[in-house]
Here is the input.
Amino acid sequence: MDALYTAVATANGREGRAVSSDGQIDLPLAFPAALGGNGQGTNPEQLFAAGYAACFASAMGAIGRQEKIDVKDASVTAEVSIGKDETDGGFGLSLVLRVELPDHLQGEAGQDLLKKTHAYCPYSKATRGNLPVEIVVE
Here is the structure.
């Protein structure tokens, strides 16, 4: 693949900082309270959720333009969960994409759009076969 853009960020653990090379991101990191932390910063799951939601929404816009479908009123919320991975005793992720579609995309038309979007989205491609992704229409 010929890279069109490369994002660069550095972090020093879940309780530290995440900083992008261009300075657009400079965030404190902290374990969420649900995992025993103080919750006084963001965490990798929140960053992944924001990135996936933005990418999926953008991919839906690209598919919408190709198919001449108006998706401007659609929105995507990503829920990234972390939990114990029983296969190795470590941790694993699961993901739910909640897609709010306008009335004209309810039913089969919306399902077709989401299927095409999920096949097209770079984040969906990266996660396919690696973690469970559920798409819920709201």
Remarks:
- The two ends are 35 Å apart (CA to CA).
- The chain has a mean pLDDT of 95.
